Amino acid sequence: MSKSNNGKAWKTILKIIAIVLGVIILIVAGYLAYVFISYHRIGDQPITPEGEAVGTVQTGTEYKIVSYNIGFGAYEDDFGFFMDGGDRAWAWSKERLDTNLKNIAKLLSEQKADLYLVQEVDIDATRSYHFDERPYLTDALTGMAYTFAQNYDSPFLFYPITQPHGAAKAGLLTFSFAPIASAERVELPIETGFTKFLDLDRCYSKNRIPTENGKELVLYNMHLSAYTSDGTIATEQLKLLLSDMQAEYEKGNYCIAGGDFNKDLLGDSSKYFGKSDIEYTWAQPIPEETFNGFDITLVAPIDESNPVASCRNADGPYHEGQYKLTVDGFLISANVELKASDVIDVAFKYSDHNPVEMAFVLN
Question: Are residues 23 and 59 in the same domain?
């Protein structure tokens, strides 16, 4: 081949490479533009209660509440999530997701609770094969009023490349044995940097349940931020919730909040569950001064004679030495009397969380 022909060949190759690189850059730029343009926050909005309930909330009567982050039905005990160090973005299969959701619904029904707070319930998500997961729970918990607050509506996340997490719509389901008069979605602050695309949107639901003495039981369901730079945003979210609860308490209402704090509620869970084989810092203790000036008490479920964690880090299948801690619990106003609280030990069989429960009386 002559030098001129050889030179032409190289120019052709370089031209093809340039075109391919140009196309890749355009695709990446187009995708980033899509993510930024599609990103939005849902905002505050009213919620319409559904279901039929005929119970009456009374003072001096002991009630039971259960809170459970179901991990969109995917986090079986052999599941590891990619954002926690695992290799999965979706539930194992449609069939396993269906079975696991039925098991979760059965587990909750067996608790015979008066109130339920359920987090990370998908209604239309790539990761859960676009199942609407609400009917599994509403069909199991019959005779109860309920509300659904959409926590986030995320654009398509094209990562991991081999199994993109995709788009997700998910939220919070709240159940009550007594009618829910009204409810609303309250938006929480989130980080403003790129992390917001990973942490999605955040909110809590606020449910008003009339009591026999003319007051209200104000029931909050929450799932605070997890994938943040240093964990401080979850503390800011908590302070907003505490302010809301304090205002309701000062009106004479009873306030209970529950859910996934994404904070180490025991301060240092390793004292109870041992050090993990890998050091994690995503769940920090709640700063001691957070509750100053509030008539609100944190209830961190623990049986010190038989401690059980409420959460495992889903870096892989559940195993000995895995990071375990308690991030799920409750908040109660001063006119709510705590009777007992604990973690329901199901060995993370259906989720990366165990359910937590609390018995209480309205004074």
Answer: no
